[in-house]
Amino acid sequence: xxxxxxxxxxxxxxxxxxxxxxxxxxxxxxxxxxxxxxxxxxxxxxxxxxxxxxxxxxxxxxxxxxxxxxxxxxxxxxxxxxxxxxxxxxxxxxxxxxxxxxxxxxxxxxxxxxxxxxxxxxxxxxxxxxxxxxxxxxxxxxxxxxxxxxxxxxxxxxxxxxxxxxxxxxxxxxxxxxxxxxxxxxxxxxxxxxxxxxxxxxxxxxxxxxxxxxxxxxxxxxxxxxxxxxxxxxxxxxxxxxxxxxxxxxxxxxxxxxxxxxxxxxxxxxxxxxxxxxxxxxxxxxxxxxxxxxxxxxxxxxxxxxxxxxxxxxxxxxxx
Length: 320
Prior knowledge:
- By secondary structure, the chain is an alpha+beta fold.
- The protein has 3 domains: 2-104, Inhibitor Of Apoptosis Protein (2mihbC-IAP-1), Chain A; 166-230, Inhibitor Of Apoptosis Protein (2mihbC-IAP-1), Chain A (Orthogonal Bundle); 263-318.
- 30% of the residues lie in helices and 9% in strands.
- The chain contains 11 helices and 9 strands.
- It has helices at residues 44-49, 62-67, 97-104, 124-137, 171-177, 188-193, 223-230, 263-271, 274-277, 285-299, 306-318, and strands at 2-3, 17-21, 25-29, 70-72, 79-81, 87-89, 196-198, 205-207, 213-214.
- The strands form 3 sheets. Strands 1-6-5-4 form a 4-stranded antiparallel β-sheet. It has a 3-stranded antiparallel β-sheet with strand order 7-8-9.
- The termini are far apart.
- 40% of the residues are buried.
- InterPro entries: BIR_rpt, IAP.
- GO terms for molecular function: cysteine-type endopeptidase inhibitor activity involved in apoptotic process.
- It comes from Hyalella azteca.
- One of its GO terms (biological process) is regulation of cell cycle.
- Pfam families: BIR.
């Protein structure tokens, strides 16, 4: 097992759209593709989606990698930790993912057991929160992308369209962002023309205008068509009056998505997260729960610092 700098070759398995007969004709999209922001990788279940059907190694499992904080970089067996940004490749038989992670990146907050905004996939206390987040990703209008441009985006000069990522309004900058992108993505110029820049995580490309992200690409896809189908409400999207939402969506585990989870069902689970417990006693549980539920409904992710928890709750209380 070695660090990623030694890994140069890529391995691409074409993305597949499968047709299947159930009780009624259903188009199965496999695996999940819509990831509105990098912050969704705080969820182990979402990290697992980046592997899709493409994980090439039998030496370590994609489930263990996702649990340890890694997303799949779509370059041979290279993975990248969402929490420390550490990269590992060339996995060998017998490797323990957690041991190698901690050995290579001693300061990773997840690998060394320190506080990290990780939402585990397993465990009864996390099940409903994970399901709520995954349900949001499957909605016709996914959650808002939490960025610093959320409220103060300027108008784009040529089309007067507000942009979530102003630094990528320039097409040449979008093209440059794909310099180290995996080979499974369409050509940089084509991606940039469709409004995409590369996020530097997995094969996640995001639209500079709406902020919407897409994973599990195939190199021969039409990025404009994919963008417009998954983010039809983006100002850059060409409207297709004949487009119908395809349901149900099948996730990377091959399971039909479960029933929708209400915010009221997960309110108590949110209060029990370690980095949220710090504000209990300062604010009432009712205010904290309502504030976090409102924030989760808007962004689809959890606050990733204690300071952000304070800001969210304080802002909510001031508006009541």
